[in-house]
Structures are given as C-alpha cells and as structure tokens.
C-alpha cells in the first residue's frame, strides 16, 4: 500500500513528522504554494492536482490520510475517484469547514507582519511538544499568512454534507476530544454517514491531535491499515 499524508491549511511536511517517522514508507504530499509555486483557490483544484501527482508517481493501492483542509481534499477525492483508493483517513476534519470571519480577518492582517504571524503560529501550536513546535512555526513562516488565508477561504467554501454518504471507501475518522476547530460532532457526522467508517476519539487531543497524541493516532492508523490487507 502507498500511504500519503495530506497537510492542513498553510501547512506542509512538518505537521506529519511523527507519522512519517513511524510509517517509514509513507509520503507527505506538499501542496502547491506551500511554499513553492502558487496555492490553489479551491478544494476541487487541490483534488485534481493530487490525482495528477498520484498518477505521475504511478502509485497503487493508495491510502490517503488528511488533516483539516487535507481531510476535505481526501473526502472530495473519495467522492470523485473512490475506485482509485484503498482507504481514507480523516483527522480533525469535517464534511463542511466553515471558517469564522474573525479568523479570516486575523489572517489577512498578518500579511506583511512576520512578528505577528509568528505569535499567531506559536499560539496555534501551543499544545504541540516543544521539540517539533519550532519547526512547525518556521515552516509556517516560510509558507506565510497569504497562503494560509487562501487555504482557509477554500475551506470556507467546502461543503459535501449532502454527498458524504455516497463514499464507499474504507474510512477511518480521528478527532481530538478537545478539538474546537473541528469538534467531535464533525467526526460523529462523518462516521454516521460513511458506511462502516471507524471512529476514534483521542482523549486530551486538540485540533493538532496527530502531533499532540502521536502514539494514539499512529496506533489507530496502524490498526486501520492492517484491516485493509
């Protein structure tokens, strides 16, 4: 199997460090504009770009795992091209990802304010172990608030709540019990709508649960992958 991790809005490789250390044959797919090139303005465009990446690499038996915006990309990929996937993992994500206007405004005013952007990133990753927090912040600075804003605007337009029940791909849904960005009710909805989806709620986990509780998340992914063999 080919396990591909898809990052959240404004993120890239650093957010999956604990997963790529554990699943040594996996790959983090770095999306356009993160930071090389230009970000894409819609989830659907990221899906098409990702499909092209998979086809160019000639990957087979693909399992896609995405966090937050990455989860939206995975969901839409499964809806459009589910027959090309072995399974999907959705971490801290949802069938709809509306973004609060205050957050969009905050990202907009961060453009050109590197010190303010660093402070915002530091707060965003406050529950992440210190040994990886700095690399997350540095990666976020390289990607920049303009890309993060573009990604959040794409998330704000994403809504497959009326279609998600059509997914027929083996699915793992993971959510941190304390996640307020994509709360447990989002995971509950996904698990209730996708046939035979497996749901795992991680006690003490917040929105970056795969960084905050990597052992628990990796075990859940490992068990899910064994079930696909």
CATH architecture classification = 3-Layer(aba) Sandwich
> Count the strands?
6
Text of the CATH class: Alpha Beta
- Which secondary-structure class do the elements indicate? alpha/beta
**Fraction in helix:** 40-55%
Q: Indicate the overall shape.
A: globular
Strand content bin:
5-15%
Output the CATH topology: Rossmann fold
User: Largest beta sheet: what is the strand line-up?
Assistant: 2-1-3-4-5-6
Mean pLDDT: 97
> What distance lies between the first and last C-alpha atoms, to the nearest angstrom?
9 Å
Count the domains.
1
CATH superfamily: Alpha/Beta hydrolase fold, catalytic domain
Output the helix-strand order.
EHEHEHEHHHHEHEHH
Q: Helical segment tally?
A: 10
Over all CA atoms, what is the radius of gyration?
16 Å
| Major β-sheet profile | 6 strands, parallel
Features:
single chain; about 230 residues; 6-stranded parallel β-sheet; 10 helices; about 15% strand; globular
Polypeptide structure, described:
The chain has 229 residues and is of the alpha/beta class. The chain has one domain: Alpha/Beta hydrolase fold, catalytic domain (Rossmann fold, 3-Layer(aba) Sandwich), CATH 3.40.50.1820. The protein is built from 10 helices and 6 strands. The protein has helices spanning 17-22, 43-57, 69-81, 101-110, 114-124, 130-143, 145-156, 184-193, 209-212, 214-226; strands at residues 2-6, 27-28, 62-67, 85-91, 171-176, 198-202. A 6-stranded parallel beta sheet has the order 2-1-3-4-5-6, sandwiched between helices. It starts with a strand and ends with a helix. The model has no long low-confidence stretch (mean pLDDT 97).
């Amino acid at each position: 199997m080919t396990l591909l991790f898809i990052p959240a809005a404004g993120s890239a490789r650093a957010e999956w460090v604990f997963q790529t250390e554990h699943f040594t044959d996996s790959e983090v797919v770095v999306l356009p504009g993160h930071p090389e090139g230009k970000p894409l303005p819609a989830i659907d465009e990221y899906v098409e770009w990702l499909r092209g990446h998979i086809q160019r690499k000639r990957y087979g038996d693909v399992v896609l795992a995405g966090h937050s915006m990455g989860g939206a990309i995975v969901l839409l990929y499964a809806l459009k091209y589910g027959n090309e996937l072995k399974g999907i993992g959705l971490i801290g994500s949802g069938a709809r990802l509306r973004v609060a206007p205050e957050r969009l405004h905050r990202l907009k005013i961060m453009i050109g304010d590197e010190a303010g952007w660093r402070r915002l990133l530091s707060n965003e990753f406050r529950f992440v172990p210190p040994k990886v927090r700095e690399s997350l912040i540095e990666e976020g600075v390289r990607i920049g608030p303009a890309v993060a804003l573009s990604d959040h605007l794409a998330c704000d337009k994403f809504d497959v709540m009326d279609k998600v029940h059509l997914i027929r791909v083996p699915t793992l849904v993971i959510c941190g019990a304390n996640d307020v960005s994509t709360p447990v009710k989002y995971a509950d909805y996904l698990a209730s709508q996708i046939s035979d989806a497996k749901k795992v709620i991680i006690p003490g986990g917040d929105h970056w649960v795969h960084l905050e509780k990597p052992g628990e998340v990796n075990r859940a992914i490992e068990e899910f992958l064994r079930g696909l063999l």
